[in-house]
Specification:
α5 (135-146) links the parallel β7 and β8. By secondary structure, this protein is of the alpha/beta class. The longest helix is centred in the C-terminal third of the chain and has 17 residues, at 250-266. α4 (109-118) packs across α5. A 6-stranded mixed sheet has the order 2-1-3-5-6-4, sandwiched between helices. It has helices spanning 24-35, 51-60, 85-90, 109-118, 135-146, 159-173, 235-242, 250-266, 272-283; strands spanning 10-16, 39-45, 65-68, 82-83, 95-99, 102-106, 127-131, 151-156, 177-181, 194-197, 223-226, 246-248. It is 36% helix and 20% strand.
Length: 285
């Protein structure tokens, strides 16, 4: 007599627009397989005007959770039941967890980023420049401040958005935070320990786009990080490396936040090596 088995797969995924460049599925599904979980991770393109309907649909299908990427990290909040303390502080959500029918918004971007940096140096006392003012910049700026950064500078072309984020970090954490207009090529101040590109400049398909930064102000030993995972070796990563900087590519942050997401959705602990190797295989890294 054959052993009965279930053909029901648990569903999670990512909503974004556009979303074809997002490689999260390529690391999450191998992690599920390695854990023996019959789960699927779907990459779903959702237009901004359809976000509410998409979230209701995922609820109706009892998805176990989902990720949000550009441009949904702030807009999704009104469609959720509550937020985690981290997401409350950051004001953006990249991970939703179905907790017995209650949809809870969390933010794993900043935590994943911190882990990447901590593998290189402690956060305490670090002076950081964060370029951008979107969801990723929010998460990274707040988490850096909460983890003990001495100073955060937000650099953004849209002055209003940049100043809003600067005020948010200062008010939520008490860490000295300043805003700098992004005009021409940004000159990284002396004494900066960490530079982060938290914009979409260089993201596939515009892979040769150049972050407007004065490369001569990148100094040996400085940590330069690009949150873009596709491609992993962006123009900024390549140029910083030639100048003796310690570089962090977007794959490390992606793997780290993916680990946290799987843990929150399933209660299981994935193998980070499986996830990193899957991504490296995809990108030929």
């Amino acid at each position: 007599m054959s052993t009965p088995r279930s053909f029901k797969q648990e569903l999670v995924g990512v909503f974004g627009f556009p979303v074809a460049e997002n490689p999260t599925q390529a690391m999450i599904e191998p992690a599920f397989a390695a854990m023996g979980l019959d789960w699927r991770y779907l990459t779903v393109e959702v237009r901004p005007e359809d976000l509410g309907a998409a979230v209701r649909g995922a609820r109706a299908m009892n998805w176990r959770g989902l990720n949000l990427t550009i441009p949904h990290k702030v807009a999704v909040i009104e469609h959720l039941d509550r937020l985690s303390p981290a997401a409350e502080k950051i004001g953006a959500v990249n991970c939703v967890i179905n907790q017995a029918g209650e949809w809870v918004g969390d933010n794993t971007d900043g935590k994943g980023f911190l882990q990447s940096v901590q593998e290189v140096r402690p956060i305490a006392g670090l002076r950081a420049v964060v370029m951008g003012a979107g969801g990723a910049a929010r998460a990274i700026g707040v988490e850096l401040a909460l983890a003990g950064a001495a100073q955060v500078t937000i650099v953004n072309r849209d002055r209003d958005r940049g100043q809003v984020l600067t005020a948010l970090i200062r008010e939520k954490t008490g860490v000295p935070t300043t805003f700098s207009d992004w005009e021409a090529r940004y000159q990284v101040p002396e004494g900066t320990d960490l530079v982060v590109n938290a914009t979409s400049i260089g993201l596939y398909p515009d892979v040769e786009a150049q972050v407007p930064i004065d490369l001569s102000t990148l100094r040996p030993g400085m940590i330069v990080s690009d949150v873009i995972p596709n491609p992993p070796r962006t123009w900024l990563v390549r140029e910083a490396e030639t100048r003796g900087c310690r570089v962090l590519d977007g794959l490390g942050m992606l793997v780290n936040q993916g680990i946290i997401g799987i843990r929150l959705w399933s209660g299981h602990e994935p193998n980070p090596d499986v996830m990193r190797k899957a991504l490296e295989s995809v990108f030929g890294a």
